[in-house]
């Protein structure tokens, strides 16, 4: 099992492709949140009735990561927990290296914690999340992804700043190219 400390040796802190993940929990229900740190792109998985099993999470996480282009899924950092017991299979299916945070160390996936705080505007503490459909989660993720990044100085959304709006990841191509140029 790789720890978040080992992650810094393989991926730069500001590099593209570092996904952090966690949960937004409700009453006996949960939604998994995945955030690509550089682009702040959000993917929501769930809503699970109760705590999801490791087998269920294997399929859900692998599918979510495969949705991202390979440069955006180099690493995944998650809390320690039984739900990612099949992390070697996630790496095998997706090529994404899985790292785990230290116990009680949410700052090791700070982008995800910030996003979960934002999602609490939509899902307050103590709400049953199990009734939320996959379609509703996609719509919410699209809404959050269409917000202007606070630190961009653009005053535009991540998608509207680029002409290829139909292509879900066209707005990320500039980030991928600029990151590759810096690493030369």
UniProtKB/TrEMBL annotation:
Annotated region (Disordered) at 144-184
The superkingdom listed in its UniProt entry is Bacteria
Q: Name one GO biological process term.
A: DNA integration
Q: Which Gene3D superfamilies match?
A: Ribonuclease H-like superfamily/Ribonuclease H
Q: What GO molecular function terms would the record report? A: nucleic acid binding; transposase activity
**InterPro entries xrefs:** Integrase_cat-core (IPR001584), RNaseH-like_sf (IPR012337), RNaseH_sf (IPR036397), Transposase-Integrase (IPR051917), Transposase_IS30-like (IPR053392)
PANTHER family in the record: TRANSPOSASE, TRANSPOSASE INSI FOR INSERTION SEQUENCE ELEMENT IS30A-RELATED
NCBIfam families reported in the protein's UniProt record: transpos_IS30
The entry's protein name is: Integrase catalytic domain-containing protein
């Amino acid at each position: 099992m790789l720890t978040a400390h080992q992650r810094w040796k393989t991926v730069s802190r500001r590099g593209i492709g570092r996904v952090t993940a966690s949960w937004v929990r409700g009453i006996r229900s949960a939604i998994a949140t995945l955030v690509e740190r550089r682009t702040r792109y959000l993917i929501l998985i769930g809503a699970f009735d109760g705590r999801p099993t490791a087998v269920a999470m294997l399929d859900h996480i692998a599918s979510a990561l495969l949705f991202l282009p390979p440069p955006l899924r180099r690493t995944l950092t998650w809390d320690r927990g039984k739900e990612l017991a099949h992390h070697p299979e996630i790496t095998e299916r997706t090529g994404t290296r899985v790292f785990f945070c230290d116990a009680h160390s949410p700052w090791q996936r700070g982008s995800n914690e910030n996003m979960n705080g934002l999602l609490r505007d939509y899902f307050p503490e103590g709400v049953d999340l199990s009734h939320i459909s996959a379609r509703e989660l996609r719509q919410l993720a699209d809404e959050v992804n269409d917000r202007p990044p606070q630190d961009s100085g653009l005053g535009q959304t991540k998608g509207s700043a680029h002409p290829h709006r139909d292509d879900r990841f066209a707005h990320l191509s500039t980030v991928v190219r600029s990151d590759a140029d810096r690493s030369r």
